[in-house]
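In response to the reviewer comment on reproducibility (Comment 2.3), we provide here a single inverse folding case reported in full, input and output, so that an independent group could reproduce the run without further information from us. The structure tokens appear first.
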């Protein structure tokens, strides 16, 4: 098959690498640096396995710097950003719609596969507008930093259509996977859109549950670790994804929970609103706890949402940082991803040892061996060194 991938973020890159094992894949992104990296057999995302595949495997993949005009693609995968717009309380789907419009203007016969996260009802709406274009939503369930791994070993493949083309695309994903006997589920488009948002809302709910447990334990001077272990040994709950944190963050969970809440308009709900409120409350509580330590200067160790990620957008650490600064406590930052000398009016250090010396208290969402010599300065809720 000949496949066009539009957007080389972590979803697009993982799909491009996966499918280029057995198919011809052409990639397009508005960021020329990402195209150059692909053509130089380097990964445009922070993903160890993607680096290995691109540098060592014989993949049929190429990047182009202009929107392709060829009409001989079998599938076009759209994996462009759909950020949550706080002004409209809705996903901004303009990049996806622009891609579809460009294809439609070329009279492309390719089947459009959308892997960007969508608001509920999007595909039904655009399919009515572009009747000649088959549009299928195939939600992704990938972790940042492990996007290719999760494509090679998928927990499931959900396809928002029962058409022949939908089954052909699902087969391509199965053929590219290393895992055998992958579960494939075919649904209607709106059910597929809903499944993506509800899956991420459940993950966010699990994060907030164990964070509220930790807040309770801290407030009552109890041992969080003992309570979590006792609770998690119940097989219905499970001993995983239960490590307290500074709150959920990153690209997906904040925007997807807000979008799902928006889609609940006129539908009774309590949980969705509570998840979002709980995440805010957690940051408020931890900001107060940090202030109680009466530090003269707080060091922020890493802004990235988690280990192995190059994404600082919507990171929970930024929320904690804002609350600490609001209490008049000076902040310094150690974050190798930031090349600027200042970040939101706080100094950025590139010398870790100097950062440690200048910090009275160091806050980190996830502890690190880099901080092993200053554990007496550390404030973290990372109890299990996982998740």
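Designed residues, in position order:
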């Amino acid at each position: 098959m000949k496949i066009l991938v539009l957007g080389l973020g972590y979803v697009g890159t993982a799909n491009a690498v996966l499918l280029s094992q057995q198919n011809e894949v052409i990639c397009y992104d508005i960021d020329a640096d990402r195209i150059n990296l692909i053509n130089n057999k380097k990964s445009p995302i922070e993903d160890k396995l993607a680096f290995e595949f691109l540098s060592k495997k014989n993949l049929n993949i190429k990047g182009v710097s202009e929107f392709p005009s060829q009409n001989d693609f079998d599938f076009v995968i759209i994996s462009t950003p759909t950020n949550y717009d706080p002004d409209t309380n809705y996903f901004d789907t303009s990049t996806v719609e622009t891609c579809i419009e460009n294809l439609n203007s070329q009279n492309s016969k390719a089947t459009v596969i959308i892997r960007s996260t969508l608001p509920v009802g999007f595909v039904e709406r655009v399919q009515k507008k572009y009747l000649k274009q088959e549009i299928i939503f195939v939600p992704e369930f990938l972790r940042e930093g492990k996007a290719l791994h999760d494509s090679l070993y998928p927990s499931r493949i959900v396809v928002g259509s029962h058409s022949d083309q939908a089954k052909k695309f699902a087969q391509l994903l199965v053929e590219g996977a290393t895992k055998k006997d992958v579960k494939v589920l075919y649904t209607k488009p709106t059910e597929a859109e809903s499944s993506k948002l509800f899956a991420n809302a459940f993950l966010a709910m699990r994060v907030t549950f164990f964070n509220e447990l930790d807040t309770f334990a801290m407030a009552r001077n109890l041992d969080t670790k003992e309570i979590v272990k006792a609770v998690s040994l119940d097989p219905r709950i499970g001993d995983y994804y239960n490590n307290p944190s500074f709150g959920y963050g990153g690209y997906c969970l904040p925007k997807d929970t807000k979008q799902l809440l928006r889609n609940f308009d006129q539908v009774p709900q309590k949980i969705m609103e509570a998840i979002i409120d709980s995440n805010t409350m957690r940051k408020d509580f931890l900001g107060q706890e940090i202030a109680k330590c009466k530090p003269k200067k707080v060091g922020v160790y890493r802004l990235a949402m988690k280990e192995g990620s190059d994404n600082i957008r919507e990171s929970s650490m930024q929320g904690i940082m804002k609350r600490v600064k609001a209490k008049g406590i000076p902040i310094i930052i150690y974050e190798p991803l930031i090349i600027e000398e200042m970040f939101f009016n706080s100094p950025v250090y590139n010398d870790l040892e100097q950062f440690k010396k200048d910090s009275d208290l160091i806050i980190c969402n996830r502890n690190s061996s880099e901080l092993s010599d200053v554990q007496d300065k550390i404030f973290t809720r990372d109890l299990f060194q996982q998740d």
